[in-house]
Amino acid sequence: MMQSISQAEIQSSGTPVSSWALPTLTFLFFIWGFITCLNDILIPHLKAVFDLTYTQAMLIQFCFFGAYFVVSLPAGALINRLGYQKGIVIGLAIAGFGTLNFIPAASFHSYPWFLAALFVLASGITILQVAANPYVTVLGNPKTASSRLTMTQAFNSLGTTVAPLIGAALILSQLDSTEGADAVQLPYLILTVALFVVALIFSRLNLPVVENATAAEKISIKTLLPFTHLWLGALGIFMYVGAEVAIGSVMVNFIALPEITGLAEADAAHYVAWYWGGAMVGRFVGALLMQRMNAGLLLAIHAAAAMLLLVLVITGQGQLALFALLLVGIANSIMFPTIFSLALHGLGKYTSQGAGLLCLAIVGGALVPLAQGKLADTFGLALSFILPIFCYIYICYFGLRSRKVTG
């Protein structure tokens, strides 16, 4: 029997829970970071296997991040009805079903099947994110809730950093072999087993059932209309996620260009780890800087740095363009949490609805990469980076405009 207890009682008492709970939750953060970043390896691989244009290849991100927009609100309703733990088990099972479908998609050499599998996989990941973030905060002493969430988020960044390395070894290294699409079967089979095993573990853990969970509330457009900075922040989230995902999606192909490094794509993929690793390190440095600097101003500085680096990417070649592109990861590091917090500032009782709106804006990760793929097909890969520059111009504006919000 699982212990039923109110959220208020948990937060006031710091109810002890299974020693497996937090480590298992931490693994969830790692695995969805890993799966999300593995798309950056999947894109160049399937592009080569199916002889796709950049626009067609970017449908991978369109299907993956489109699921966030479609599933976020239903996921919140599911968590409210069934609770965090059951929601996590369902999310893991759905994600596992998605990764399992990579095997027949490869066997039948079907790109549409891959896209459908990605949407199912991302739907499960969306449910996990809606449930796991608030659940971490109530598992244990409330005084250390922020510390627990920071630690688990760090493992998410670790997942995004190691995914390109493993993906390069298991997937891109097979591009020149006879395996083709079949190269994805082993890594995604491993992910399938891991997801179902963790789902089984979570279903057996003795965890407190948080009553009256409020993982997500129905978004009321009329209620949120007066909060101009929230809507501007939602557009900022759209721009940021879109730019970050678009850059990561074309990075392997760009680095492999003869005028940049001329490396094989399997070798070029190793540099993607530096891009995401820079974002991980930058988060820790940025957290320290924000104790001394205005958050809006720091956001504007990072966005301006990203713009200047991408100008070097477009106009430069060789090592200059390569390292300018990798350094964009550091510039990205503080953007998501900073935009998120600035957008929610002063919302009071409408904070959860505002957060739901911001989560919907993650759909930028579906649309901006698709647009950059079209630019790459039309004007070339280097020039396509002009689109993320416009995204960062807006983020810089939002940062400057938000300077007075928090003082």
From TrEMBL:
GO terms of molecular function: D-glucose transmembrane transporter activity; galactose transmembrane transporter activity
Ranges of residues in domain Major facilitator superfamily (MFS) profile: 21-404
Domain of life: Bacteria
PROSITE patterns in alphabetical order: MFS
Annotated InterPro entries: Glc/Gal_transptr_bac (IPR005964), MFS (IPR011701), MFS_dom (IPR020846), MFS_trans_sf (IPR036259), MFS_TsgA-like (IPR050375)
Major subcellular location class: membrane
Membrane-spanning residues: 20-42, 54-75, 87-107, 113-133, 154-175, 187-209, 230-256, 268-289, 296-314, 320-343, 355-373, 379-400
Membrane topology: Multi-pass membrane protein
Keyword Transmembrane helix appears in the UniProt entry: yes
Provenance organism: Rheinheimera tangshanensis
Record's function text: Intake of glucose and galactose.
Family as reported in the entry's similarity comment: Belongs to the major facilitator superfamily. FHS transporter (TC 2.A.1.7) family.
An example Gene Ontology CC term for this record: plasma membrane
Subcellular locations according to the entry: Cell inner membrane
Signal peptide: none
Keyword set, alphabetical order: Cell inner membrane, Cell membrane, Membrane, Sugar transport, Transmembrane, Transmembrane helix, Transport
Protein name according to UniProt: Sugar MFS transporter
